[in-house]
Specification:
By secondary structure, the protein is α/β, with parallel strands linked by helices. Helices cover 22% and strands 27% of the residues. The longest helix is centred in the C-terminal third of the chain and has 13 residues.
């Protein structure tokens, strides 16, 4: 699904998602991604059920720089595995889970408001 045509050199915007990947600020990514205000990283996660705390290290290492972190769970919203959720809470990283499409749209809105937002997005 196409979201926006505009991007800014100083912040990442999700322009399209679907077909197993994303277009972020003019760059195509196959598979899942972590979108941060200044960069987008490939993310090896394919399903929320198999996610581990180690998969969130790029976010945990930046927790002090983030206001909010969104988690795109795929086609539908799913609960984060309990042990991962508890470990993330201890690290100080609060994650808002939602389906991937909603996470992409919410990320762009919050980024447009100037918030320090990150999104971990499972490809659909």
């Amino acid at each position: 699904m196409k979201l926006t045509r505009q991007s800014s050199a100083d912040r990442q915007l999700v322009q399209r998602y679907g077909g197993g990947g994303f277009r972020v600020s003019g760059v195509e990514f196959k598979g899942s991604v972590i979108v941060l205000p200044g960069e987008t990283l490939a993310w090896p996660v394919t399903a929320l059920e198999t996610v581990k705390l180690a998969d969130f290290i790029p976010l945990v290492s930046r927790v002090k720089d983030l206001d909010v972190c969104l988690l795109g769970c795929g086609v539908g919203m799913l609960p984060i595995p309990r042990e991962v959720r508890e470990a993330l809470k201890i690290s100080g990283l609060a994650i808002d889970p939602m389906d991937t499409g909603a996470a992409c749209r919410t990320y762009n809105v919050l980024m447009g408001e100037g918030r320090a937002v990150a999104a971990a997005l499972i490809a659909v």
